[in-house]
Amino acid sequence: MAEIKQTQPFESLEEEALLNLVRTADRLARAGEDLLARHGLSGEQYNVLRILRGAGAGGLPCGEVGARMLTRNPDVTRLLDRLAAQGLATRRRDARDRRVVVAFVSRKGLRLLARLDLPLRAVVRGSLKHLSKTELRAAIRLLERMRTPPERPARARAASRPKRSRR
Fold it and tell me: Which domains does the chain have, with CATH numbers?
């Protein structure tokens, strides 16, 4: 991979594929992140705002926000703290279960998302405009397949089952 100035061959085809995937994801994300940074947001904060907008007026418990994020982030509370400090999100305790904190996108957050929708859509389209619809569909299928855990062979599944005692 010339971009990272690697001179030795990869250990495996899988390693080469994974590094290419990471490099591609970084390059595609960078353009959108530059736009978001100009509006005082990180990619993760933007993701949280979109999740909250999609949740509607009922908001979402903080744990559910974390479960819906594109990338795993164990500290959703800190993300929400930053969004609340900017006036983009609010939180309140659930009336029925005081242990649950529900997050909401604020009016200011909704206005910011509305301003970002078209420019970010243009960034996404511009980043992938050189690919045909057929290529994009093939990439989607391949990426989804990469995230699907491999099936274990039948012998391995049988060996991992607990043995029944014979009486």
Answer: 9-141 (1.10.10.10)
